[in-house]
Amino acid sequence: MSLRQIIEQRRAEDTAPRTHACYSLTPNATVLEVTASDGEYWQLPWQQFTSARHGKEGEHDASVLTFLTHVVELRGFHFAPLREAIRERRLAFLRVAPTKYCKAAEGDLFIEVLHVRRIDEAGA
Asked: Which of its termini does the chain have fewer beta carbons within 10 Å around, N or C?
């Protein structure tokens, strides 16, 4: 395989959407689609994203994504790929994975709890 073919193959891989059990990545995502723990479905435009806070709650990773009108709160494990995807504006979809799959996802990103609230309801 020539160098040109390798470069073209890698570019194609970088621009292809990537899907995971709890999230999907799309280059230059314009909207974050969220299926919350309560089953509600949200579409939040990245243009309204203002900040992210990442930390720990006991053994869990915890992240809070703040948009102009809404706050997305998530808790789970191994959130490093999420932080990178947010920073690079590639995060396109988030959802909770059933708890029974937690052991199967050991070492992999796993979202256990995900809530979306309006800013006025979140106390922010």
From this structure: N
Contact predicate 92/26, CB 8 Å: yes
pLDDT at res. 108: 78
* Edge-to-edge strand list for the sheet holding 49-57: 49-57, 60-67, 70-77, 110-118
Cα–Cα distance between 61 and 38 in angstroms, integer?
A: 20
| Residue 109: predicted pLDDT | 84
Distances (CA, A) of 99 to 42, 62, 110: 21, 16, 9
In eight-state DSSP terms, residue 32 is: E
Q: Name the pTM for this structure.
A: 0.78
Tokens 């191994």 sit at which residue?
A: 78
